[in-house]
Amino acid sequence: MQLSIKHLLGIKDLIPQDIRLILSTAKQFKEVLQRPIKKVPTLRDTTIINLFYENSTRTRISFELAEKRLSADTINFSASASSVSKGETLLDTVNNVLSMKVDMVVIRHAASGAPHFLAKHIPAAIINAGDGINEHPTQALLDAYSIEERIGSLEGKKIVLVGDIMHSRVALSNIYLLKKMGAEVMVAGPPTLMPKYIEEALQVKVEYNLQKALQWCDVANILRIQLERQSQVLFSSLREYNLSYGVSRKLLDSINKEIVIMHPGPINRGVEIDSDVADSHQSIILQQVENGVAVRMAVLYLLSGKTS
Prior knowledge:
By secondary structure, the protein is an alpha/beta fold. The chain is built from 12 helices and 9 strands. It is globular.
């Protein structure tokens, strides 16, 4: 089987069969990662560049590790230490890189649509590692993999995304994926961090009372407050946010069922989630990190053209 796409620009472009193929391939790669020798020669002689125009730790390391596990040749590019700081354009940078015969480009960029722009102008396979407030497709895929690993098929499951929905590319990618795979989706958070018309535009439930949202769901994916993307003050203080929308042990104990807790990271402990929740048996946050490598191995492999 092959993907219906040449690039992974967003979950919006995928069909359910693509998602299922990526998740099933990731399962095979996760088995590889449990072996004493975790490396396979699958992408030997494939050159991949990691173009990160925004700071990243987990996503960049996860992609680098996935590439190394597949035996690919990797080039790591940091915008702050490059000609970009001297005024070079995105297209010039990539064309210079492609002249070095690069096969795949993993890109994270502050501008929404940057990966789509590249896909129109260069022949290499493009993987979106996060673009502005648009999408973060591999995060949604690893979230889906982690949910299925813990509680089974996504179909019919109730998933709530909690927090800064307006500025979260993780939220948008998760909504697209969960809806395509038959899950029920709710978003919860302060009205000031909720996009207008999201209920009608994306066909999701909206809830401003966190306790009601947690009572409704099977899985709660807690999102980070993205202060760096907020151009104005949208809530009075982090303390007030924590009191109204922070997920605490006391809050979880007040609902009459056990739910699964997720977080894409990095965690603001004591703001959107308390430590005794993040580190509890209900949390699959560390499993998400582990599964990220297997999912990104699957994406790289399926887009490499070496599946036949």
